[in-house]
Write a structure and sequence with these properties.
mainly alpha; rod-shaped
Length: about 50
């Protein structure tokens, strides 16, 4: 029974590590796309032509 808990704990650590790694890759991409969208919105409000 102890081996099952150890295996389950190890798999949990691997899954959580993978999720955190994936999140650390996605956050800069999301920040960049949100900044670009805000820039386009601000230009549209000022009357700049749309692309």
């Amino acid at each position: 029974m102890g081996v099952a808990y150890l295996l389950f704990g190890g798999l949990t650590v691997l899954v959580m590590g993978g999720c955190l790694l994936d999140l650390s890759w996605r956050v800069p991409l999301l920040e960049g796309s949100m900044a670009a969208q805000l820039r386009r919105s601000a230009e549209t409000i000022r009357g700049a032509p749309l692309d």
